[in-house]
Amino acid sequence: MSTRILAAIAVLLAAFAVHQSTQLLDLRRELASAQARGVEDARVDIVNAMANQGGEIARAASWLNDYYKSPEGLQRPAGLSIDGHPDYEGIGVWIFGVYLPHRLKGESDEQARQAIVAQIQRSDEWQSKHRVER
Q: Rounded to two decimals, what is the model's pTM?
């Protein structure tokens, strides 16, 4: 009789283990699907946040051009222009790499611009043009 009880318990435990394993696999699939949806939702949110922001980006690039020219900036007479063409690297780094991420985090236009200034002031180019007497 005790052998039958132990066998029944073993069968129940095996069934429970199979059920738990199946549930775990289902949960893993759901998690992977939710993560994929989350990434896609984040992309859509970024696109929606950037829709109709062309004017703001143009104003930020114009400001950056002026800052590049200014005595307190990089003192480049041509601003965001190198050899007669736009400084694509500067635009990419400062507008798309600094300004936009700060704006997307909810910071103001002024805060995003100050983040650019702070990073430019740490650059070798800025440092070489603004040697501070020590």
A: 0.68
